[in-house]
Amino acid sequence: MRILLVEDETALAAQVRASLADAGYAVDTAADGLDAWHLGAEQPYDAVILDLGLPRLDGLSVLRRWRAAQVSAPVLILTARDSWTEKVEGIDAGADDYLAKPFRMEELLARIRALIRRAHGMPAPELQCGPVRMNPRAGTVSVDGAPVVLTAHEFRVLDYLMHHPGAIVSKTALTEHIYAQDFDRDSNTIEVFVGRLRRKLGVDVIETVRGQGYRLRPPAQARS
Question: If we measure between CA atoms, which residue out of 79, 77, 6 comes closest to residue 38?
């Protein structure tokens, strides 16, 4: 999953980015409203963390522009403590949730996980496809209860597929959602990650749809 973090406080941005990366997310950052506006309008993010007090263009204006342009990524706004007016204005502008500064990193991560689940219509905290279970909070994967150790990129590929069960996901979409913008992307490596996932999972849940991409299905539904 790929996150856009918009925060102009350098130390806080570095702390949040590190925590998101440790949690398995690909993270892009912006330190002002204009850069945020362009990134959010041009790149496919799974969630956005948006500070409201930004230079060049304030966060509310950025959010309103995104929503007017039909940018649908869920947005968590960061507000000043006890600023109920900012919270109301943010929600009315199209935000999906808010978090007051200062905050605990665990709460921010929990809210991001919840936003992504709701965006995909998945209320349960764990994801499941047949015998494969994923716990995004713990960063764990198991098959029939047995733990499976994945690399960071393998986890991101499986995470994205499990958030889109039954849908055909192209290699391009996977590339866009598992790498940060500044990463040297190569769509050919997606085939490598999928091949490794199949071997490690040991069950037939990732179907190749020739010429289109991949689809996640329970073993009984998967086709070779």
Answer: 6
149 burial via Cβ count (<10 Å: 0-12, 13-18, 19+): exposed
* Three-class DSSP category at 61: helix
Q: Strands 97-100 and 75-79: what pairing?
A: parallel
Handedness of CA 167, 171, 176, 177 (dihedral sign): positive
Helix pair 171-178, 188-201: axis angle to 10 deg: 90
Q: Residue 102 is which amino acid?
A: P
The rounded radius of gyration (Å) of the Cα atoms in the chain is: 18
| Structural domains of the chain, ranges and CATH numbers in brackets | 2-119 (3.40.50.2300), 127-216 (1.10.10.10)
- Sign of the Cα torsion 94, 96, 101, 105 reads negative
- 3-state class of 54 per DSSP? coil
Largest CA distance in the chain: 56
Tell me the per-residue pLDDT of 79-104, one tens digit each, with 9 for 90 and over: 886 678 888 999 999 999 999 999 99
Predicted model pTM: 0.87
Q: Are 217 and 166 in contact (CB under 8 A)?
A: yes
Q: Measure the N-to-C terminal CA separation of the chain; round to a whole number of Å.
A: 27
